[in-house]
C-alpha cells in the first residue's frame, strides 16, 4: 500500500503556534491592531477604574456583570472559604523554603484538588464552586508562604474586607492606605484574563482530555512560572536591582543586548505596538511612587523603557509596571508571580468551563524529522 503523502498544508509548521487561531472564545478579546483588551466586551481600563475584582471575577465566569444580589452571593461564598484547612497549611509548611513560591502555589492547588469532595464532578455548577473556592484560598496560600519565609506567624483572614483588602491584610497583618489597595486591585483586574496565552492554553489542553479543573489549574501554574510568561514580573525587579540607578540604565541595556539577553518585561507575542494594560498599571505605579516617595524607582523605570524603545523599539508588557508596583507594596520579589496566579485563576477557570461546554480533544500534529525507518540490529 502506498504510504500517506503529506500535502503542503499538512507540513506547514507553525512554530510556537504563532498566528494560529485554534478555537473561538467569548471570554476576552485581545486586539493588537486597536490595542484593546475586552473582558466579555468591556474595556479592561473601564473595569479597572470602576469595578472591584470580585465583580470582574463574576463577569468572567458568568458573562455579565453581577447585580447587587449576585455580587453579595459571590462575596459571601468567597469570604466564607478564605480560611485554609489544616491539610493545606501542613502541605505549605512541609515544603522547603529553598523552593520557589510558585512551586508552593502549584502544590497547594494540587492538594486542594486531592481533598475536593466533588473531584469526579466536572459539571458547570461544580466547576464554578471549585473556582470560587480557589479564588478564596489562594491569597491565604500566597500570604502564608511569604510570612513563613520571613519567620512571621500566619494572619487569620477577615470576612469584613473585600478581596484586595483581605489579601493585603493576610500578607502584611494590616490593611494599607487606600492608594495601595486601589493599585493592588487594579493589578488584579488587569492580570485576570488574556485569551489564549500559554498558561490558559495549558489549562484548556488539560481540560480537553476531560481531566479535572484542579489538574488544569495545576498545569497552568506551571506554565505561568516561566520567565517568558508570568515569571517576568519577578525578573523585572531583578533587572532593576542589577541596574541600580536610572543613570546606569542605557549602558546596562547596551551591554545586555550585546550579550543577547532577553530584557524581561518587554515584548509580547500578540501586542507589537504596546500592551493595552500598561498605561493603566503605570498610573497605579505612579500613585505608589508618590505615596512611598520613591521617584528614583520611576526614574529607573522610565530610563530603561526609553533606552529599550530607542534601541529596539520593543515596548513594555504588563509585567514591567507590576514588578516595581508589587515591590513598593512590600511583597518579596519571588511572591510576584503567585500574585498573578491569584488573579488569573478567574480567567483560567472561565476558559476551562468554556472548553468543556464545547469540548474537542486538543491534539495537534508534528512533522517527523528523525531517522528514517530502520531495523534493530
Ligand atoms: C504577562 C505576560 O506573560 S507578557 C510576556 C512576559 N515575558 C517577558 O517579558 C519576557 C521577555 N519577552 C520575550 O521574551 C518575548 O518578547 C516574548 C516571549 C514575550 C514574545 O516573543 P515572540 O513573540 O516569540 O517574539 P520573539 O521572541 O520571536 O521576538 C522577536 C524579536 O524581538 C526580540 N525580542 C523580543 N522581546 C525581546 C526582549 N524582551 N528583549 C530583547 N529582545 C527581544 C527577539 O530577540 C527577536 O529578535 P530577532 O528577530 O532578532 O531574533
Ligand atoms: O497573552 C500573553 O501571551 C501573555 C500575557 O500578556 C498574559 O497572559 O497576560
TrEMBL record:
It holds the Pfam family Citrate_synt. Keywords: Transferase, Tricarboxylic acid cycle. Gene3D superfamilies: Citrate Synthase, domain 1, Cytochrome P450-Terp, domain 2. Pathway: Carbohydrate metabolism; tricarboxylic acid cycle; isocitrate from oxaloacetate: step 1/2. PROSITE patterns: CITRATE_SYNTHASE. GO terms for molecular function: citrate synthase activity. One of its GO terms (biological process) is tricarboxylic acid cycle. Transmembrane segments: none annotated. One of its GO terms (cellular component) is cytosol. The active site is at 268, 319. It catalyses: oxaloacetate + acetyl-CoA + H2O = citrate + CoA + H(+). InterPro entries: 2-MeCitrate/Citrate_synth_II (IPR011278), Citrate_synth-like_lrg_a-sub (IPR016142), Citrate_synth-like_sm_a-sub (IPR016143), Citrate_synthase (IPR002020), Citrate_synthase_AS (IPR019810), Citrate_synthase_bac-typ (IPR024176), Citrate_synthase_sf (IPR036969). Belongs to the citrate synthase family. This is Citrate synthase. The lineage of its organism: Bacteria, Bacillati, Actinomycetota, Actinomycetes, Micrococcales.
Amino acid at each position: 500500500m502506498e504510504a500517506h503523502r503529506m500535502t503542503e498544508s499538512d507540513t506547514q509548521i507553525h512554530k510556537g503556534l504563532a498566528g494560529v487561531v485554534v478555537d473561538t472564545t467569548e471570554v476576552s478579546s485581545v486586539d493588537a491592531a486597536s490595542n484593546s483588551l475586552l473582558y466579555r466586551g468591556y474595556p479592561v481600563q473601564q473595569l479597572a477604574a470602576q469595578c472591584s475584582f470580585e465583580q470582574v471575577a463574576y463577569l468572567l465566569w458568568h458573562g455579565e456583570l453581577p447585580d447587587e444580589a449576585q455580587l453579595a452571593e459571590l462575596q459571601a461564598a468567597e469570604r466564607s472559604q478564605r480560611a485554609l484547612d489544616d491539610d493545606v497549611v501542613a502541605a505549605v509548611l512541609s515544603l522547603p523554603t529553598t523552593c520557589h513560591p510558585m512551586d508552593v502555589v502549584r502544590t497547594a492547588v494540587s492538594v486542594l484538588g486531592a481533598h475536593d469532595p466533588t473531584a469526579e464532578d466536572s459539571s458547570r455548577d461544580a466547576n464554578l464552586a471549585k473556582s470560587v473556592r480557589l479564588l478564596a484560598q489562594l491569597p491565604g496560600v500566597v500570604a502564608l508562604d511569604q510570612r513563613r519565609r520571613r519567620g512571621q506567624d500566619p494572619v487569620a483572614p477577615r470576612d469584613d474586607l473585600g478581596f484586595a483588602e483581605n489579601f493585603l491584610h493576610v500578607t502584611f497583618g494590616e490593611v494599607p492606605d487606600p492608594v495601595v489597595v486601589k493599585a493592588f486591585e487594579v493589578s488584579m483586574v488587569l492580570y485576570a484574563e488574556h485569551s489564549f496565552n500559554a498558561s490558559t492554553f495549558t489549562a484548556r489542553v488539560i481540560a480537553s482530555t476531560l481531566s479535572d479543573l484542579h489538574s488544569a489549574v495545576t498545569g497552568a501554574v506551571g506554565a505561568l512560572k516561566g520567565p517568558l510568561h508570568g515569571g517576568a514580573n519577578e525578573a523585572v525587579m531583578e533587572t532593576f536591582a542589577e541596574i541600580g540607578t536610572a543613570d546606569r540604565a542605557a549602558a546596562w541595556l547596551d551591554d545586555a543586548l550585546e550579550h543577547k539577553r532577553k530584557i524581561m518585561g518587554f515584548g509580547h507575542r500578540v501586542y507589537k505596538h504596546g500592551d493595552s494594560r500598561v498605561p493603566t498599571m503605570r498610573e497605579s505605579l505612579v500613585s505608589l511612587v508618590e505615596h512611598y516617595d520613591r521617584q528614583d524607582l520611576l526614574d529607573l523605570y522610565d530610563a530603561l523603557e526609553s533606552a529599550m524603545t530607542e534601541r529596539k523599539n520593543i515596548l513594555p508588557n504588563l509585567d514591567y509596571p507590576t514588578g516595581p508596583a508589587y515591590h513598593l507594596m512590600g511583597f518579596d520579589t519571588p511572591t510576584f508571580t503567585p500574585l498573578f496566579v491569584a488573579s488569573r485563576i478567574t480567567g483560567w477557570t472561565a476558559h476551562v468551563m468554556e472548553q468543556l461546554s464545547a469540548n474537542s480533544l486538543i491534539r495537534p500534529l508534528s512533522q517527523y524529522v528523525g531517522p528514517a525507518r530502520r531495523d534493530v540490529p
